[in-house]
Amino acid sequence: QVQLVESGGGLVQSGGSLRLSCAASGIIFHIYNLGWYRQGPGKQRELVASITSGFSTNYTDSVKGRFTISRDNLKNTVYLQMNSLKPEDTAVYYCNARWMGDLQSRWGQGTQVTVSS
What we know:
globular
């Protein structure tokens, strides 16, 4: 059974930091490309950051220089370090795992991040 379990969300003041974690089970973790998405109130879900199986990373413009995605294949975990948080970063954050050989795109249940001004 495939599971992605996010943790690390919470309430933080503007300018603060949070580190999200997503622990995966039931997949061959190191071959999957991973991503963090977010969905703010009244907004569509958007890709925030991604990291490939080869450790290449990509970020949406609004978080470049503030967020860092990383992965630990020994712990089957992907991280999102979020610094200099802004109120507009408030959203539910979801981790995602996908691989061309897997018919399904795998999702976690989400973790709430709230940034107060």
